[in-house]
Queue: 2 jobs
Job 1
Amino acid sequence: MTQKSIEELTFEKMREILSGGDSMPNDAIFLGDDFALLSGEPSHFKRLLPVDTPFRIDDIRIGLIKQGELKNEVNLQAHHLHKNTIAFMGKGSIIELREASADLSIIGVAFQDHYLGSINNLPVPLNGEVRDLFIEDATDEEVIMLEQLLQTTRKLVHQPRISKEAVGGMVKAIVHYVAGLCRERQMGSKQAKDNDRDIFERFIRLVNLYCRTEHQIAFYAEKLFLSPRYVSQVVKQVSGLSAKDWIDRALITEAKVMLKHTPMRAVQISYELNFPNPSFFSKFFKQHTGITPEEYRKG
């Protein structure tokens, strides 16, 4: 069966969302064809990411929490982020906002993967190894440097005559700077990370990639070159949840995205997510959410 695409939080969708409601300060947002910059307060942020509504992004995002805190779920994993956190989210990430404090202030950029052209020898997170990284232990010096780069870019895009080359150069500088920070953290964590944690993180990455069609632990165990029993033991020990729980959570997230952001009927979604029949899908969804797929769509 041909895979249908899920509607994503594209630049066109962001433009549509931000065109309604209260006006934003002229310099709070820049939204081009393949590059965007947002410097916003909670009301602006929540317009793009309504609470408890999952979105899949089709771009790369780098941002800094300047003030306040938020709780969200990114690629199945819950995060409680606070002031001075540096965030990277790669293309295809699924984001679901849970809570944002009244004083939340964020500045960040988003760009299509082709925007920067060819950049050789990029370290993580922009070499395809991971989808998201959060640096919660950023030093004051690192935060100041990143904010200066972002603020300079913000000033450039709001000049009467925008120099695309200058803006592109600044975004490349931001990418290299954040990628370098991520590489340092990953090198340090690799030395301290135990084998079980590594297996768990690889398992989660695979679930994010294949959950729409693969619901059985055996599939993921084979990809990891381990036995299903061993994978189940490790995942439970590291996370407190079973491997099946993680697969089910991923399926529910995918279903929510489709129900909220596509016109597909529940029967179509059930087939897209490889359920044996629509009735089984409906029961599965209600078991995990307390409501039917149609009730979720209308809510």
Job 2
Amino acid sequence: MSKAVVSSLYDSDVFKMACRQFDQAADAISLPEHIRDRTKYPRRSLSVSLPIKRDDGSVTVFEGYRVQHNLSTGPAKGGIRFHQDVSIGEVAALSMWMSWKCSLAGLPYGGAKGGVIVDPRLLSESELERLSRRYMQEIAPFIGPHIDVPAPDMGTNEKIMGWMMDTYSNHIGRNEPACVTGKPISLGGSQGRREATGVGVAYLVKAYLADLNLPIQSATVAIQGFGNVGSEAALALAGYGAKIIAISDYTTGIYNPHGIDIKRALAFISSQKVLRDFDGGEPITNEELLTLDCTVLVPGALERVITAEIAPKLRCRILAEAANGPTTFSADRILEQREEIEIIPDVLCNAGGVIVSYFEWLQNLQNCYWDREEVLQKLVVILDRAKSSVDYQKRKFKFSRRLAALTLGIQRVADAKQSRGLFP
């Protein structure tokens, strides 16, 4: 029997990395050959041209994507990224990781992801609105509450989700809040959604510190990436009593061994938009931040920042992957030999966002809303269950924690595909 010919459509380093992770996990659980490619490769992808009128009257055509990796376990779910370095390969990799993440958490979703090649900082608010609405208009035939439910990601936020919800609702002729998640509260957004990913990261860090008998009050934390996820994780960890000694964004890093005042840093960001010139510590580079001596390192920005060159230099006890795919495959091999470093893999560590997105979707479908305390209580229950299943898989098969998480997520998706059979 001839082997399937794989399309070069998704050719990118990050997609190759996601595929290598899959292959390693599939080998570890002896996934049958006839189900591998069906489980591994995206179900479908969409490329769209997005012409918008600029404020000066000119027209610019942007390029956007939506990749639906898996629809066998429920509607697809995943964020929309506005970033100048977006590629269809990156979006495909992120959609694959979303499939494993949703599966690991036990959510009735498949994975998806979207992106537009744009630096949103270079657009006015009216231009950003026109681009957001045009993107939703183009992908509208392929999404919906029971097909594919987008959410915010890097470069997008609840305001953009509100514009997209309005566009979709106008497209179908009725109000449909469940078409996207991460919306403003006034449009059916969930309490706790904005901070969910960062809060989930902090909760898991606290849980793993407890497993290691390390008091969180004496823990030091360095966080690369001070956007929504990194800042909320910093706030939650500081609230638990940890000392945040370093933070960074794309302009600079800030280091203070005595601890950074996170609320003051957030106030500075609110007024200045970037961390550059913040006087709460001494400036350092993002690479220097990654190699600081700390209890917990949180890469919370882009993927593939912990490389084979950086991995031997890490000086943390816990590596908490708040970003998607921050550790390259070759770096992961190095870290597997460094038993002093505990990794909380991305598909577990940052699952809080999609879990509370699921809660938002449920609330929209039922038109029944929960308070913040109830949302966060339900979040903790699912995180605890996912953590326990990963740690059990790790002990049972002597896997790394990443391999344990991936094998659980992949096996459940493969089982669903096998149970449904192959449509003629």
